[in-house]
Design goal:
single chain; alpha/beta; abc type-2 transporter like fold; two-stranded antiparallel sheet; 8 strands; 61% helix; elongated
Length: 391
């Protein structure tokens, strides 16, 4: 009961800070609006793209050659058969796979609706979504489908040789989601995904980091700086009770802020395939991990300013080197550094359940890592506080 009272007191103290409340509301609203409306959709770079042409007709092979020339990706590989396709999916040695289905070219000639399929890499969703969005942007901007005009040579040259058939339907771009267990492919029910769907979890995680990590670090530092922790302990409060009350407080604050940020994005049109309860569990585990990390970083410092500075610097490092804002090159040393930060596992899990529609069993690795981070930091914080606390 004493712990809950202390937690409620901590929450009320934060709520009385108008600056924190205003920032907690205004920043998610502004970022959600601008992130959903203006986040660039043409950031595809020289990723590892694989092409699989199932349309082996004469026209199909000719179209495939044109598509390869048009894409001009430096690391493009050609898939020859289903066995090679399954092997590449299992190995995860790709950023995206483009599939041209059987009968694609003939359906295009016959003015039927056509579909191209893209397979994302569940472990490189950031890169995959950029490729997917790039393809969608190209086809969305088409005024029609190019075609060679028929007639005499003179007529062909006078009319420009190549025209646009505006009556022929433009190809749809659909996403095939690979199963995390056996690699089988399922068509995504969502047909209008974009970069903003990948960007939304970043903002929510950043808000959680700012409020939970900086909040608990500042609170711990202030309690030690003014002697409040000494007063609590002299009146019989255990160190673990003090830690637990802080963790409960900032888990609640971080969770509310994260969910508020996420649903602000949802209001501005961001799509999600996540089961709400799965998302709630992931956010709770993420907030617990981040809060414990902030507690750990402040547990050996005795001033609020020093604790806030260290945690702010660490958050900056995670945003830059944790694969949060910029995709991390595969096989680079930065990829190994990113694995040391809990933010990577939170974002990976968040994107898997919201973009790919994965369930809890498919993100069990990320959840276990986040729980492991949180428990380790809690225990280490307790030991550090006890070791550095004056008696």
């Amino acid at each position: 009961m004493k712990i809950l009272k202390m937690s409620w007191y901590e929450i009320k103290k934060v709520l009385r800070n108008r600056g924190v409340l205003i920032l907690s509301i205004i920043i998610p609203v502004i970022l959600a609006y601008f992130g959903s409306s203006f986040y660039p959709a043409d950031m595809a770079q020289d990723f590892q793209l694989a092409l699989y042409n199932e349309d082996n007709s004469l026209l199909g092979n000719f179209s495939f050659i044109l598509i390869k020339q048009f894409l001009n990706f430096e690391n493009t590989i050609e898939i020859k058969n289903d066995e090679q396709l399954n092997q590449i999916i299992r190995e995860g040695s790709y950023d995206s796979i483009l599939i041209i289905p059987k009968g694609f070219t003939q359906d295009l000639v016959d003015h039927k609706q056509t579909v191209l399929y893209i397979i994302p890499n569940p472990h490189k969703i950031q890169n995959s979504m950029m490729v997917y969005t790039g393809f969608k942007a190209v086809f969305d901007e088409l005024a029609g489908i190019p075609e060679i005009k028929v007639g005499s040579t003179t007529e062909f040259l006078l009319q420009g040789g190549i025209g646009i058939d505006e009556t022929r339907p433009k190809p749809e771009i659909k996403m095939l989601i690979p199963s995390a267990s056996d690699g089988s492919l399922v068509v995504s029910p969502t047909t209008n995904l974009g970069i903003n769907d990948m960007f939304a979890p970043i903002v929510a995680v950043v808000v959680i980091l700012l409020l939970s990590m900086i909040g608990i670090a500042s609170s711990i530092g202030q309690a030690r700086e003014v002697g409040l922790l000494d007063l609590y302990i002299s009146n019989g409060l255990k160190t673990w009770q003090f830690i637990l009350s802080k963790i409960i407080s900032y888990i609640i604050i971080g969770f509310v802020a994260g969910m508020f940020s996420w649903y602000m994005f949802r209001m501005f049109g961001v799509q999600s395939q996540a089961n709400p309860w799965n998302l709630i569990l992931l956010v709770l585990v993420s907030v617990f991990s981040f809060t414990s990390f902030g507690l750990f970083l402040s547990s050996f410092l005795k001033t609020a300013r020093a604790a806030s500075f260290l945690v702010t610097a660490m958050i900056g490092g995670m945003l830059v080197f944790g694969g949060t804002l910029i995709p991390i090159p595969t096989g680079s040393i930065l990829e190994k550094i990113a694995n040391l930060f809990p933010v990577k596992y939170s974002l990976d899990g968040w994107r898997k359940i919201t973009v790919l529609g994965y369930g809890l069993s498919d993100i069990s690795f990320e959840i276990l890592i986040l729980l492991g981070f949180g428990l380790f930091f809690c225990l280490a914080s307790l030991l550090l506080l006890q070791a550095t606390q004056e008696t």
